[in-house]
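Sanity check record (used in CI):
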Amino acid sequence: MASRVGPRAEGTDGSDYQHRERVASHYQMSVALKSEIKKLIYMQMAIWLLLLAQMCVGHLKLLPHDQVAMPYQWEYPYLLSIIPSLFGLMSFPRNNISYLVLSMISTGLFSVAPLIYGSMEMFPMAQQLYRHGKAYRFIFGFSAVSVMYLLVVVAVQVHGWQLYYSKKLLDSWFTSTQEKKKK
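Expected output for Protein jagunal homolog 1:
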């Protein structure tokens, strides 16, 4: 193999070893997918912190009730959505498939399910706002149901992409595991 400082092997210019100098595609994909999932986890943590702040302000009455409304019921179980994020982050250092699978399953249970429930819980209030223009809960002057539906739409996208990239990462890790077993 061609060396950076020493002589090359006899009878070669070093180009016949180029295939050894490339990183396998599943390793490249693993690094890229981990990066994307980390970004999504940080977005999810930002959403989680916003909901936590709204709950704290609402329950501790730090601001008047007309400024920040009390939380909807779906927000309480959604606070458990931090668990899948932690499992996801724990799976990255050693490519731990078990933690990644736990992250994917618990994302459905602790993140997506409360969002679906929240959409159904807030639907009558959204319908009343749309039909009659009446809102009874507010967050800094905006209709609470509008703000929370916007948050639900963003959270569904974040969790959807997180699940998609996690599945692709899982496939990538299985590919590398199968190749190691063949050798």
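Helices lie at 25-60, 75-78, 82-91, 97-132, 144-182. If this sentence no longer matches the regenerated tokens, the check is flagged for review.
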